Amino acid sequence: MTRRGLTRGGVRGLMGASRSAARPEIRFGFLPGALHIVTYSTFGLCRPALALAFVALLSACGAPPVVEPAVPAVYGALVDGDNTIPAVNPKYLNERNRRTWVAYEGPEPAGTIVVDPHARLLYHVVEPGKAMRFGIAVGREGRGFKGDAVVRRKELYPYWAPTRNMIRQDPEIYGELAGGLPGGLDNPLGARALYLYRNGKDTMYRIHGTMDPSSIGKATSAGCIRLFNQDIIDMFDEAPMGTRVKVRSKAESLALEGPMVQLHTGYLVPADALDLIEADQAAYDAGLLIDPAVEEAEAHARAVEAARAAREIELRGGN
User: Is the pLDDT of residue 57 over 60?
Assistant: First the structure.
């Protein structure tokens, strides 16, 4: 077994036999049957409101009760050296965010990492026509680069420091962190980072983990390309030094992924997924959705406080 949950030889077609044998297929989003019901894992519904809505809807149609989704094995708690990475909350593991094998139609050769910041997806092409797909969060810096690069540096629990722009724009938040933070689970870069170079120069573009799993699949105010920590560990292990990375342009994304629509939850769906869009709008109108801007602000505040605490510990010499 690889840490992707299947043997390499088991990747055949879209339904790699050994992968499906390694863990059951878990689908989020809609219940089977004539009545389509949106779940909190797709749209970020708060649990109490979701429960009330489901009781009313399900009693009307006699549908089976909703079962709380389990955490897939690859997103469970992970002992990683001296750190234990928490399991990913299943409400963040919607269909587009979960690591999965897919058919790949792009022109890139096997071994290439393809980043689509516009569709918020990352592909690792493993053989012609097949790739492992990941959901990503895309920060401001992640939208400012396109084209080809190469992985020339890899770090476990990387050091992080705010950029000059971050300090200038939010001096009260980032000023005291200008000296940077040591690696750890309270570090914004998360468990691993891949550093991309072009023509021998650092592009300042990173593919990295996160301290805020709720952000995956969304646009964020800062950062490059972030994955769940379980996923960046996967990519770190699979991508050797010298791995080619292709970052798609907007035109390339439209040609290969089609147009996308951002829901009120902050997640993207294909523009022709009218049932998802209508359900999201209905949930928003009913006041059942968590505002992603508020959620990000709360997560950001927690992250900054954790970073400050880590910095204080470092200054005290770890005591």
Answer: no
